[in-house]
Amino acid sequence: MAKERPEAPGTEASTPDRILLAAERLFSERGIDGVSLREITSAAGVNSAAAHYHFGSKEAVLAELFARRARPIADRRAQLLGEVKTNRQGRPAVEDVLRAFLQPALDLMETPEGLAFTRLRARMMFERDDVKREIMARTFDATSRMAMEALARALPRLPQKELQWRFHFLLGSMVYSMARPGRIESVTKGSLRTDDPRATLDHLVRYAAAGLRAP
């Protein structure tokens, strides 16, 4: 975690916050490996010594940034999954589980900071470095397992391995939708837009539920 150090009166953002905001923007634009710690400090308007004092390394900057942005998503997801109602057989509705799992991440897209983080998260899905994969796992594995367990209760006849494959495709659809690459806007000449998180959530829940229930 970043070390705290008193800032001068009237400072709008602390030094650690400025470093994290600059890192988030640069990481989301160019990827983690394409950005150096020196570039981050330059963009933040601080000297290199400040970055080393507060974080120590680029990987520590990434870990702190991910913890700040992703932990609220994971906490809200765990809360919503824990509140999903079940029927007399103890089975939740597939749509309710999907909405609880997807909504916290898609809600983040409604803020500029959230959009930057979703682009960063999309990039990290394709990073092969073990450090980056460990950061993702530390934050999201627990709630992903919660969702899979709930879906297994909702679909008791679906073999475990098949459920895992379908959940894999669900994750891909979610991250691609969050990244907003603009492909469907191009294909449809702008007649379909994906910049409404609520509409995206509704369509993705219907699509994923149909796939999960398929024979």
Defining key terms:
215 residues, mainly alpha, Arc Repressor Mutant, subunit A, Tetracycline Repressor, domain 2, 70% helix, disordered N terminus
Please tell me the overall pLDDT: 86
- Described by its quaternary structure, the protein is single chain
Compute the separation of the termini in Å.
47 Å
- CATH architecture group name of the largest domain: Orthogonal Bundle
Q: Could you state the order of secondary-structure elements as H and E?
A: HHHHHHHHHH
Structural class: mainly alpha
CATH superfamily of the largest domain: Tetracycline Repressor, domain 2
| Largest sheet properties | none
CATH C-level category of the largest domain: Mainly Alpha
Q: Could you outline the blueprint of secondary structure elements for this entry?
A:
Blueprint: H1 15-30, H2 37-44, H3 48-54, H4 58-83, H5 94-107, H6 112-124, H7 130-154, H8 160-179, H9 183-187, H10 197-213
Provide a descriptive summary of the structure in words.
With 215 residues, this protein is mostly helical. It contains ten helices and no strands. It has helices at 15-30, 37-44, 48-54, 58-83, 94-107, 112-124, 130-154, 160-179, 183-187, 197-213. Helix 1 packs across helix 2 (37-44) and helix 5 (94-107) packs antiparallel against helix 10 (197-213). The model is unreliable at 1-11 (pLDDT under 50).
Describe the structure in brief.
By secondary structure, the chain is an all-alpha fold. 70% of the residues lie in helices and 0% in strands.
